[in-house]
Amino acid sequence: MEASKMYRLNKIQQMLGDRQVQAIADATGLSRWTIYNVRNGVGKIRYETIELLSDYFEDYFERHK
Q: What pTM did the predictor assign?
């Protein structure tokens, strides 16, 4: 079984920069405000949130190879 890749927070913030926030919210179950806060580095960001976003981007890039 292949280990999944965990993106670092700064990479996730960079990747969120040009994405449709509502589409990510729909796909992950996170609120738009949570995603905005992660992207802008506002507040405390939970590990579980980073996991969800990392999994989202891993799946996204796998589908768009």
A: 0.89
